[in-house]
Design a protein that fits this description.
mainly alpha; Endonuclease Iii, domain 2; Endonuclease III, domain 1; about 60% helix; globular; disordered N terminus
């Protein structure tokens, strides 16, 4: 028995070996716990990245589109303004005057009929526009918002109006019936008057600027989107290409605060160039 027992003890694990393995297991367990704790601590102590909130820049005051000035309502005012314009740019203005002569006033009624005439003149020749306006005055007596609002499409079409112009006239008549007072626009700042006009469907910046220019006599209104003005500027300034609206606005800064007079002169100059070239009906 003693031998048997002795063999079992000798064939089994010694106390030292068991102790070493037990100690190793405890050590490994401690290390794992330490790593877990450190990992948890790292997660707990992780400082979130600071969010950088970009603040929008302060809005700048909108630049004045039109320089204020006394209205050009008669020939005497136009002549005085033309003298002032020539003082701003003697060489260019002088050369245009030689070709086109003093520009006409082109004053229009500052009300519904005046704005209708401007809408009708969009993208057609002067002769065609005048003919359509004459037919409108013959068909509607008086030519006002109520009569246009009551008219059917056939009556407007008989005056030579396109579908787009008929819609614009109807929209203007409706806006006028709903409170748009065209006669009161002269009392507003030009920017406010312009914004009130382009709020009407079918009336764009070109139409609004022409109303300011010819119906309200604003001295600095300048319809830079007008193709004739762009071509006149190209010819007068010897440019290789016709300037677009943005470029023409930059060019016209030299004529501020009398850009409205410059516009009249550019049109007169363009007409003079065409007449010299033998172009008829412009």
């Amino acid at each position: 028995m003693a031998g048997s027992v002795s063999k079992k003890r000798g064939g089994g694990k010694s106390a030292k070996t068991v102790a070493r393995k037990t100690s190793a297991k405890r050590s490994a367990t401690k290390k794992r716990k330490t790593v877990v704790k450190r990992g948890a601590a790292a997660k707990l102590n992780t400082t979130p990245k600071r969010r950088v909130i970009k603040r929008a820049p302060k809005a700048r005051a909108a630049a004045r589109r039109y320089h204020p000035g006394p209205p050009i309502a008669d020939e005497a005012a136009l002549a005085a303004a033309l003298t002032g314009l020539q003082a701003l740019d003697p060489e260019t203005i002088g050369a245009m005057l030689v070709v086109g002569g003093p520009p006409p006033l082109r004053w229009r009624e500052p009300g519904f009929a005046g704005l209708v005439a401007i809408i009708v003149s969009q993208q057609v020749s002067v002769a065609s526009a005048n003919a359509m306006v004459a037919r409108l005055h013959a068909a509607f007596s008086p030519l006002d918002a109520a009569s246009v609002l009551a008219a059917d499409e056939a009556k407007l079409k008989a005056c030579g109006l396109s579908q787009a112009k008929m819609k614009a006239l109807k929209a203007l008549a409706e806006a006028t019936a709903n409170g748009l007072d065209l006669s009161a626009l002269a009392a507003l700042e030009a920017e406010a008057a312009h914004d009130a006009l382009i709020a009407v469907k079918g009336i764009g910046p070109w139409t609004a600027d022409l109303f300011l220019l010819f119906c309200l006599g604003h001295p600095d209104a300048f319809p830079a989107g007008d193709l004739a003005l762009q071509e006149a500027a190209r010819l007068a300034l010897g440019l290789k290409q016709r300037p677009d609206a943005r470029k023409l606005e930059e060019i016209a800064e030299r004529w501020r605060p009398l850009r409205g007079v410059a516009a009249r002169l550019l049109w007169a100059y363009y007409r003079g160039v065409k007449q010299r070239a033998g172009v008829v009906g412009q």
